[in-house]
Amino acid sequence: MSALAGAIILVMVVVFLVSNAVTTIEAGTRGVLKTFGEITGVLDEGLHFRMPFITSVTIVEVRTQRYESNSSAASRDLQTVTTQVVINYRPDASRVDRLVREIGVDYERRVVDPAIQEAIKAATARFTAEELITRRPEVSDLILSVLSERLTPRDVIVESVSITDFNFSPEFARAIEAKQVAEQDALRASRELERARIEAQQQVARAEAEAKARLEIARAEAESLRLLGEVVSPQLLQLRFIERWDGVLPRFLGGDNGLVTMLSIPSNDVLGDPPAASRTQPAAPEGEVSASGQ
Questions:
Q1: Which is more confident, 181 or 150?
Q2: Could you read off the pLDDT of 223-258 as tens digits, one per residue?
Q3: What is residue 32's predicted lDDT score, i.e. its pLDDT?
Q4: Within 10 Å of residue 162's Cβ, how many Cβ atoms?
Q5: Are 117 and 139 contacting, i.e. CB atoms less than 8 angstroms apart?
Q6: How far apart are CA 181 and CA 163, in angstroms?
Q7: What pLDDT, in 10s, does the model give residues 27-49?
Q8: Is the pLDDT of residue 289 over 50?
Q9: Quick check: 283 pLDDT over 70?
Q10: Higher pLDDT, 269 or 99
Q11: Does domain 65-168 have CATH number 3.30.360.10?
Q12: Could you tell me which residues come within 8 angstroms of residue 75 by beta carbon, excluding any fewer than 6 positions away?
């Protein structure tokens, strides 16, 4: 019975020693190997054997990590601006042993956040409050440059910086809103002025077209009269008058001596025909003839 108990104890000791002698490093991490507390190497991903009890492994994540930070700073025109940024960074996988030795595993609080605060303040001070909005990509690039300069020597690689928001003082926010309203009003007035200018140009163009059309019509009429004057002769006018005359003479004729009354003579008398009454006069009755004879 005692032998069985001893065997069980031996197995448990072996299992305990083996479990402490084997270390698994997950993907995206590195293991900093320590022997009696001294850093003696870096373990890559995979399964590793080590001396139990006298060695230990500190896991450091080397994947890209996201860190969000807010910082208030004064702009170049002395406006208080609160900037919210998101930083993507990762520890240098080839130098995690030095990172743990010099800074420790709490490097985010010790070096990353202070560097972000300093970079935001340095970048904000170079721009006015309005330029922070209109030149946001340049502000992001400047923050990234300052962060890289600060963190790369500390074995932290900064991959990107994104500015997610700017918060201004209430007074400045009202000033920006008033400026935007003024710009919109100016733009609307400019558009109305441009529309009025275009309409005026259209009216001028229509007036010029109408004047040109009237001029062309006048030229055509003048040309027509000129051609008609070349064709019409006194003989042609007399012929047209005779063709249109209805045979009735005018009752009055104007001259140097005033109005002269014209006699209305029938056309038959002019042609020499006897009057119809004389041609058709009936013979006198016989009684009247005998009475006259007596």
A1: 150
A2: 777 776 666 667 666 766 777 777 666 665 555 565
A3: 92
A4: 15
A5: no
A6: 26
A7: 999 999 998 888 898 999 888 88
A8: no
A9: no
A10: 99
A11: no
A12: 81, 124, 125, 127, 128, 129, 132
**Distance (Å, rounded) from C-alpha 229 to C-alpha 196?**
49
pLDDT in tens, 199-218: 888 888 888 888 888 888 88
CA distance 251 to 264: 7
Best CA proximity match to 108, nearest among 95, 91, 84: 91
Bridge partners (DSSP) listed for residue 69:
85
If pLDDT is split at 50, 70 and 90, which confidence band does 169 have? confident
Encode the chain in three state secondary structure: CHHHHHHHHHHHHHHHHHHHHEEEECCCEEEEEEECCEEEEEECCEEEECCCCCEEEEEEECCCEEEEEEEEEECCCCCEEEEEEEEEEEECHHHHHHHHHHCCCCHHHHHHHHHHHHHHHHHHCCCCHHHHHHCHHHHHHHHHHHHHHHHHHHCEEEEEEEEEEEEECHHHHHHHHHHHHHHHHHHHHHHHHHHHHHHHHHHHHHHHHHHHHHHHHHHHHHHHHHHHHHHCCHHHHHHHHHHHCCCCCCCEEEECCEEEECCCCCHHHHHCCCCHHHHCCCCCCHHHHHHHHC
Read off the pTM.
Answer: 0.56
- Round to whole Å and give the CA distance between 19 and 223: 120
Q: CA-CA distance, 124 to 133, in Å (whole number)?
A: 11
Tokens of 277: 């009454």
Neighbours of 69 (CB within 10 A): 16
Q: Answer whether residue 148 shows pLDDT above 90.
A: yes
Show me where the domains of the chain are located.
Answer: 2-61, 65-168
Which residues are paired to 24 by β-bridges? 47
C-beta atoms surrounding 257 within 10 Å: 6
